[in-house]
Amino acid sequence: MTLYPKLILDALNTVRYPGNGKTLVENEMIADNMRIDGMSVSFSLVFEKMTDPFKASMLKSAETAIHTYISPDVKVDITVESKQAARPEPGKMLPQVKNIIAVSSGKGGVGKSTVAANLAVALSKLGYKVGLLDADIFGPSMPKMFQVEDARPYAEKIDGRDLIIPIEKYGLKMLSIGFFVDPDQPTLWRGGMASNALKQLIGDADWGDLDYFVIDTPPGTSDIHLTLVQTLAITGAVIVSTPQEVALADARKGIHMYTTDKVNVPILGLVENMAWFTPAELPQNKYYIFGKEGVKKLAEQMNVPLLGQIPIVQSICESGDEGIPATLDENSITGMAFFNLAENVVRQTEIRNATEPPTHIVEINK
Ligand code: ADP
């Protein structure tokens, strides 16, 4: 007997796709790459998504139909394709983003998220296009700080891919891992699951054109940092610390995490948070509660810029809780401190881009 395409298509036309009850042929699920060679046939079955629940059963049914209606001797080789374009490879995500800034700290509670949020808002108020990704799986705080705790971002089909649409608030685009995890069960998200979720938030979201993509990373060193440097070419890191000795020791570790040979992410500079306390009614007075200029001295020792000093102000804490970043009030002490920080970040990013080669992602050793 001789095989020819119509014979195969007639056999496949008996197989119905359970998703809509139509046959594989009616659904145009047979790609036009059919090859026949003696008693062998190969072709692709095209699904909407690679995750189609009927994929395995359709493969089996197609093969059985050919064996039943034509001959059990036909050798069948079916490849699966999806209409959905694949996520870009590591290192090729965020093609329209100019600068990727990772905000880090050696330990928790030093104000890293507060700095990341206010830095992002200040950059956007300076006229830049800004995206903010809350990757702090241990305590995602952006939904609260931006007053969008109930937001549930949805996906839209864009250029053949289902992309998550970031939330827009205070002039910037924002996504948080907190939108996708139950805050009471963060432990579930450690390990591979969190890494995967993060890659989705980066590679499967519609971030579009951005000048600055600010990432609030978890405190300390973690698998999440590893995922980030393996996925994105981070332009530079901003390290937040308080002036306390314990915090400074951890801040050093945070710096080394980025500057080791294999990672090679430049440090844009340090931020001294909670640098001093200033009572609202005595704005000239400074009380150095956590020690004086510890971060400033660390910056000098490590030969990296000091990007800013942020005082302890009650309103920073309150505004974080209320979901209105302090920076929105440009004339407040804190507003001015964060604008100054943002201007320094811009300056250091420009210097870095002019003087150092682009960052490379960390290759995964197999
Ligand atoms: P981290 O991300 O390092 O864990 P957060 O940004 O969540 O820290 O800050 C911890 C707490 O400290 C929050 O309640 C925040 O509002 C408060 N906070 C941070 N920076 C300041 C500051 N400069 N003045 C007053 N409160 C601050």
List the defining traits of the structure above.
elongated; three-stranded mixed beta sheet; binds adenosine-5'-diphosphate; GMP Synthetase, Chain A, domain 3; Rossmann fold; single chain; alpha/beta; eight-stranded mixed beta sheet; 366 residues
Please summarize what this structure is:
This protein has 366 residues and is an alpha/beta fold. It contains ten helices and 13 strands. The strands form three sheets. Strands 8-9-5-10-4-11-12-13 form an eight-stranded mixed beta sheet, with helices on both faces. It has a three-stranded mixed beta sheet with strand order 1-2-3, with helices on one face.
- Which strand order spans the largest sheet, edge to edge or round the barrel? 8-9-5-10-4-11-12-13
What is the averaged pLDDT score? Answer: 91
For this structure, what is the CATH homologous superfamily of the largest domain?
Answer: P-loop containing nucleotide triphosphate hydrolases
SS summary, helix count: 10
Strand content: 15-25%
How many domains? Answer: 2
SSE diagram, text form:
Layout: H1 5-12, E1 35-37, E2 40-47, H2 55-69, E3 75-82, E4 97-105, H3 112-125, E5 130-134, H4 142-145, E6 155-158, E7 161-164, E8 167-169, E9 172-176, H5 192-203, E10 210-216, H6 223-231, E11 236-241, H7 245-259, E12 267-277, H8 294-302, E13 306-312, H9 314-322, H10 333-355
Could you walk me through the main structural features you see in this protein, from its secondary elements to its overall organization?
With 366 residues, this protein is α/β, with parallel strands linked by helices. It has two domains: 5-82, GMP Synthetase, Chain A, domain 3, CATH 3.30.300.130; 97-355, P-loop containing nucleotide triphosphate hydrolases (Rossmann fold, 3-Layer(aba) Sandwich). It is 32% helix and 22% strand. Helix 7 (245-259) links the parallel strand 11 and strand 12. The longest helix is centred in the last third of the chain and has 23 residues, at 333-355. Residues 105, 108-114, 141, 219, 273-274, 310, 312-313, 316-317, 320 line the site of adenosine-5'-diphosphate (ADP).
